[in-house]
Amino acid sequence: MFKVDIQSEQKQAVAIEARRTREKQRQSRIFNVQNQVIGVDMEALKNQVMERRKREDAERAREEAFNANRVQCDLMAQMLEKEEAQRARQVAQQVQAFREKEQQPHHRREFDLCDPARLQRKPIRVGSQDPCCGPSSMQYFAGEDLNSTTRRRLQQEQSRRDLGRQWEEHLQARRQEKYLDILEGQRQIEMDLRAVHLDELQATHRRVKDVATANYNRTQATEMDIQQQLARQREQDDNLTEIYNHLTSDMLTEKCPASLKSQKVIQNHWKGMSSEQIAAIQKEQAGQRLEAQHRRKAEKRQEAEWARQEQMAAQAACQLEHEQQLQAQKLRRDLDAYNKELAQEQQAKKDYLDKVVYTNEPTSQFYLQFNTSSR
């Protein structure tokens, strides 16, 4: 039999039909109100939850298997460590037993030179003339101490004596310190009592000084009152004397012919000015009045000039303010015209959009064509 190939159009038709079938099934699942809960696929969520639980159970089982394997490995490691420690302990015990049995100190060749009990059994030499030493033996060695026991005993006794003396000195120092503390306390008490006594003396002296100052102030006040009374009495006497001198002088009685003939004026004998002096004074006063009039006229001219300058400045300011107001009004008119023109343009644009562009209003059928696919 020969293999018959399906035509491409048939394949495309079959594929399109299959896609349409899948799309219908998808739409039936998505747009079904009973199964749809705010756009959430509950079956998919349940499947995801079940898959997640299965994955968590698998991971938990895997972790438990790993934990069991780790515990078993730890137990085996502990057993191996115990065996290794026991083996090392056995080897150490065998080595120690061999040393104790075969390597005794007295088996060594040089044991007689480093025997610790040799000196206890018999000293090497008791002195410089030891009979135990032969003729060829050396009798003296640099640095050896044959009297070490006696010297050590003497040193210990001396140390005890030094310690006892130091202890006595320490006790004496403590007793001396206590005695000094007692003396210091007594001296502090004495100083406190002396300070209290000095405070009392100072208070008494201050009171006495205050009383003396008050008495002195009263005495001074009394003396000042007396001096003021004497000054007032003296001033009153001087005033009376001056009044009496004025009453009895030639100034009021006009009995001073010699003063008219002489050029020297005696103040207490002067009766008045002459006609020449009065004329000179009047002339001087007239000149001063004329000068004052000129000065007032100059001041008036200056004030008038200042007033004129102020008026000119005020007029210039008013003119400048008027020009500014005219410019502001012109600017406002231009701005209003521009806003009016802009409003007209916007209204024309709105009318064009409402009447020309947006004439075909969408119906409900237009909105129903959206959201009809599951994609």
Could you describe the 3D structure shown?
The protein has 375 residues and is mainly alpha-helical. It has eight helices and no strands. The protein has helices at 8-30, 42-102, 118-121, 148-248, 250-253, 257-261, 275-357, 364-368. The model is unreliable at 255-262 (pLDDT under 50).
List keywords for this structure.
0% strand; 375 residues; 76% helix
- What percent of residues adopt helix (DSSP H or I)? over 70%
Sheet with the most strands, sense and barrel status: none
Radius of gyration over all CA atoms, rounded: 71 Å
- Termini Cα gap: 44 Å
What is the structural class? mainly alpha
Q: Tell me the number of helical segments per DSSP (H or I, 4 or more residues long).
A: 8
Q: In short, what is this structure?
A:
This protein has 375 residues and is mainly α.
Secondary structure topology:
Elements: H1 8-30, H2 42-102, H3 118-121, H4 148-248, H5 250-253, H6 257-261, H7 275-357, H8 364-368
